Structures
1.
Amino acid sequence: MFKNKAVSLPYLVWSAVFVIVPLGLVAYYAMTTKTGQFTLDNLARVGQYAPVIMSSILLSIIATIISLIIAYPLAYIMSRSSGNTQRTYMMLIMLPMWMNFLLRTYSWMTILERNGLINRFLELFGIGPLTMINTPGAVVLGMIYNYLPFMILPLYTTMLKIEQHTIEAAQDLGATPWQVLSRVIIPLSMPGVTTGITMVFVPCISTFAISRMLGGGSSMLIGDLIELQFLGNTYNPNLGAAISMVLMVIILICMAMMNMFDEGEDKEAMLL
Amino acid sequence: MNENVLISLRNVAVDFDGERILHNIDLDINDKEFVTLLGPSGCGKTTTLRIIGGFVEPTEGDVFFDGARINDLPPYKRQVNTVFQRYALFPHLNVYENIEFGLKLNKVDEKERRTRVKEMLEMVNLKGFEHRSINRLSGGQQQRVAIARALINHPRVLLLDEPLGALDLKLRKEMQVELKRIQQSLEITFIYVTHDQEEALTMSDRVVVMKDGVILQQGTPQDIYNEPANAFVADFIGESNIVDGIMHRDFLVEFAGREFDCVDKGFGLNEQVDVVIRPEDIKVVPSISGQFSGVVESVTFKGVHYEMIVDSCGIKWMIHSTHAEEVGSLVGMCVEPNDIHIMHKMEEE
């Protein structure tokens, strides 16, 4: 048998070259001027984009919460259905993901447009046209649509592990359906909730394609801002790197908060 | 109707996926009685228990609790608690919180909760385990938590679904005695499901033997053992020799190539019957003085007794005796008329 160390060596090299080095480069660019001198100006300038950062956080939180609300009951129903029904649900959830991400988002544009499907339908009843595209609402919709599967799947996996007997035991001891939910199902599915939140929140907060296509100019997000610095007219990789670093710190803080919240559960799980 | 009857099943039938798995069950369970539903797996005993617990709704028939029809009463409204087969403890709660669960739902105040959980822990011998995570308990300890958790609400009936199935033999025997003690000290009704005939005989006031969704026989352990209603019950409850026989007339049966006196009557003339003889009821005697004789094929030491297989004209008799005979030797066998049990042939399936 291989020794553990020998087997993990390629992964170590890989992470050194493709994770640590790029991170170092981001940090280097963030703290230097165009001519390569040390400066903190770039980081200081991030402050002036506070409104963009705040609205990114806000929209991502809204999208994450709505995803959780949609995904939770669905995941529960899935986990309690028969094998065949479970596979069908799984297929329906995965199917859209086999299509290109940009294509899927693009199709929402044609649905939400001023002359899009919804407005033309509403016209039949003399309503509208409504402004749906290029609003923060459309951006949130795009986020939920694209990242909902990442909420459903971890929830579904943890709920599969909740035994039917455990639920019956609670009913047997006098728990009403609501009490079964609040005292047994929710506590036992917490690991799935935290994973789901992380897996939806992180891509939401760093997205740029969704806000560009569905938000127009109306709601610029951190992702758009960073993209502009590297690929846009305002070419300024040093500022872009600084914003990226701030974004990473924000995500790290969010994850740390989640972990603190989740700590109690983890301890129990460790004892297994 | 008997005044003591607490639960009645009247003509209860259950279908699963269009298949009938329980047929016309009529069963009365008295207050403070220890009733065991006994049968092989798939006989419908667990389904019967789940009907009483409220987890299965009968397709036909009625369930009464204390005189009131409870067919569609959800489990959380029933004065019945269950000890589940694999305990089904709450993995996110410790021992104390698991036992306390039912009290919290009933809004019992903190102080009383504490005294009652403490009482329960003492009763199941788990003092000092309050803050243990349930993942760090042995099977026997988890079992005790499950029992304490189910008893904390003072149910009128405790349902137990093969609660000792996962325990080793010694622990199982200890828990049998303990369960009986708990049942007697609390004076509540226990309905116990098992496939272990010895467990059923040891603990029950009444045993209900089931097979293929039908009740075959019910009675005291002694009745069931001594007077089994048919060959299946006889074979399932303890070991038996079951041979084909012909009932020539009342009190006279022919099997193993000769006629025997017996104590049964009321069969048709020359009816084909099953003859059941317990292995411990066959006496081994010198070959000339036996009613019939055979050759010893094998001898196995079983601790308290030897188990011998004796071949007599092609019929293999199982005999339990404290004396071992030589393998290959010719022995005689005697059976008292009292120990010959005659049964109607069961309908072939």
Note: Helices of chain B lie at 45-53, 95-105, 110-123, 139-151, 169-186, 197-203, 221-226, 231-236.
2.
Amino acid sequence: MRMTAIPARRARVTWSWYVRASTVQLIMYAVLIIGALIAMFPFIWMIITSFKSYGEVASGRFFPRELRWWNYIEAWNAAPFARYFMNSIFIAITTIVGDLVTGVLAAYAFARMEFPGRDTIFFLFLATLMVPGELTVLPNFLTIRWLGWYNTYQAQIIPFAASVFHIFLLRQFFMNIPRDYWDAALLDGCTHFRYLISVVVPLSRAAIVTVALLSFIGSWNAFLWPLIVTSSEKMRPIQVGLRSFVTEQATQTQLMMAAATMVIVPIIIFYLFTQKQFTQGIATTGLKG
Amino acid sequence: MVQAAMAKKRRPPWRRGEAVMGFIYILPATIILGVFHFWPMFYAVYISLHRWRVVRQGFVGLENYEWVLTSPKFWNSLKVTVYYVVGTVPIQLALSLLLAYILFQKVRGREVFRTIYFLPYVTSTIASGAVFAWMFNPNTGPINQFLASIGLTPQRWLLEPRGIFTLMGEAWGIPWLQGGPSLALVTIMIFVIWFWVGYDATIFLAGLGAIPYELYEAAQIDGANRWQQFRHITLPLLSPTIFFLSLVAMIGAFKAFNHIFIMTEAAAGTVGGPLNTTTTVTVFFFQNFYDTPTYGKAAAIAFVLFIIILIFSLLQNWVASKRVFYME
Amino acid sequence: MKRYTWLAAGLVLIALLIAACAQATPTPTPTPQPAAQPEAPMEAPEEEMDPVSKLDPSGQEVLFWHVSTRKHEQVLMEIIEGFNNSNPYGIKVVPEYAGYYGDIYKKILAGIAAGETPDLAVAYANQVAEYANAGVIVPLDQFINSEKYGFTEEEKEDFMWNLLEGDRNPKFGNQLLSFAHSRSMQVMYYNVDWLKELGYDEPPKTWEEFKEICVKATDPEKGTFGYAYAGGASLFAGFLFTFGGDIVSEDNTKIAFNSEAGLKVLQLIRDLFDSGCTYEVAERFGDQTDFANRKVLFTFGSTAGIPYYRSAIEESEKGPFNWDVAAPPSAIGKPVVNVYGPSVTIFKSVPERELASWLFFKYWAEPENVAKWAMVANYFPIRKSALELPEMQEYLQKNPQYKKAFDLLPYGRMEPSVAGYQQIRGIIGNMMKQVVEGMDPQEALAAAAAEAQSVLDQNQ
């Protein structure tokens, strides 16, 4: 269907074409495989290290003598990980929902609606991307206290329930939806909201899934802000647990890697899960639907 | 902006009902962004006009800005930042587009590859930073062992404060070849490119998926070859994604901090080392925000950086307005 | 496009104007506490009975932000529970984990600006100096000297006050602004077997001897070195002390490391590199790894690392060997060790609560507790009598290197507790790197001292 479909349309498949196509294929796979090895290496190292003993880490041995799977039990028991996981999942899911609702609405307005000051407001939104996040910590902390949200979930959710970056991303995709669709919908007496829900959102599934995934990763990896706005273990997310593996003198690398592996598994699961949606989204975003 | 301009020609600027709806649609996002992004920005401007060491100590006007602009350390950090941006953004985009393009062909195991390429983005930087420090260890690391095995000179990587051009000049005996980013900074750039390529490729893939393949079919019927299709269909239709990713990569590069912190603290013992050759503007900001909590100065650094990023973004936007093509 | 350029310019201008106006009018923004800058030393009046003894801390609840996790946290919880259950005033200490050292510091900085500080927190002494400048720290001397709640003369004798030297701050009348229950120190690790092979029974006492042995241990063929150099301000301070130098002047206002002693340290580093017997370590604890793998004869590091060195050596590919720790070589005829470690500090609230916090410190400072607390981190208790406890004796038996380091405690010195020291540490690290790269030591020293002095000047 796509570019590789070209030869099928040709009348004859010649030998020289076959050789050339194979060479191209070979190079393509070589590039992909080398890239994959480089990308995977630190990840593999992390998993291998998580099964080592401290001495094996220190002596620079690459493979452990035995698989110390109990490193994972030790890591799990070292902090209230079960609670941390539940908190992080709750915070991540609510953040994604909030982020998508605010993001889709705003992106649609910026992409398809006409109102005074639209481009100016959008530009102001973008400007906030350019300020170091650390600078906002102090005033935002004052705001959270003023709102009485210290040590709550909403302090960890609401500030991230809208993202300029994600609005930007969605807007880029929405703008690529042919305008004819809207003109047609308008003739049918369709409102903006119905058009958004029944046409734009389904067509932009790929973008929405991408945003959900990025939002999830952002929320899942948050560390400093949750630490500042919470005081009790009951409210804290997973990264705080991961951080508790940095001991003063020697980093217990093997335990830290066990904990790090545990912590990134949900992201990978989420990614694998959305991957299907992703592919499907791309496949069904054709104009035939 | 292109289509905004076109829309203006087509019909009256805006209808009342739609204008009201437009504001309602952006309201939820605006409230949150206003409270948690705009207000802090204004507050930070306020801080930047004060002598402020942990707590407010007195109004000083633009003194902090003067300090920033006359500080040699700031200009050095700006130089480092420019090296960093120029050295990472184009390479990162080109590599990820290449990978995404290959993946978008009928490739066996596409999903597996895509998942693998995304791994750096989800792996904790604590782990991957440690791995890179280990790989580039001058004494025991595999990279130097590899270089030695193929007859090249082992390098000091994260410990090397001299510029790569100086190193090349020495190696090849070209005396006028001098300066450039330090090898330590280059090592960090390699990490950054590694980290972002899979992420960019994922977004590129989504962008490629949004291109209707009828266009390719039509081009094939017209007899366009693969390169022509790429040049005249893929690139123009992907231009919003390219613009988007280059803007994000550039802003990200200007704000880069975490991995520089992790990699240089582990290797050189000082964040931003060796000899400040990896002290980007953001690292400089952090030194003044936390090492010595002079918030007024730190906020002034942040706003000077803000204005620089703004100028770059406007430049990029200007280029994009001539080149980016939105499907209508 | 033009529109955007104007917009950008306008945006910046408006922001500046708003901020400037905000200053002119009585500030509607949340105003942080005014910066109290006590110029005069805060001293308790000596005549009347001390005011602290008149206070009643009954029923106070104090919030304690700490950095401990895992087994450290367990021991800390035991101590806290012990206090909560046994104190006659019904004081309750509520512990909260507040992240690692860097994190708790950020949390406290945000807290000071928002007026939300804990009652007690773990901090390094230079961070305490920063908090004290913001006017939120309670000096501890009034409690220590309180007739009713303080230490007896006998108890005071029992403390090794040189281990708390860094908690005293000249800017605040040389009062104790924080307190530590245990400390660690920088020692020289060495491979006993290897040293014997080279013909030495004792570790080097002077830097000349150190260099000589390093050169002998170096063999490019086998890839072995005398010393694994891991630069940094603590190493510099440790070396500087052995030449009789200081980082800053007595009153913490002048940089003092640009002295004869400072120059000698840098020349020593230069010489070691020139002779090829040392190399730079490129990872955290990379020297520990190399030591365990017999690549290097000497390393310098914290005594808290002893257990990690032990397990690395026991599990080493090259097989275990005999090793030990010693004081760094010295140029002044007696050993000097750089002592370091975090402290605990009390934040201003109401006098009763401050006193309640102190009473917890005092309980924590009891010999059994300091011993317990020291052992979990392989630190050293700051009380001599803790050594006599049976559990401590047993621990010493099992840890011969620890025992050896214990005897060096009287020779301990500390780095200064001055605000901005973190930045000065960066400057010192940079200076050392310059020398390693071949810059003239004198030149590097002068430049670094000038830069560090400008950091100190900001404190005035």
Note: Confidence is low (pLDDT under 50) at residues 19-41 of chain C.
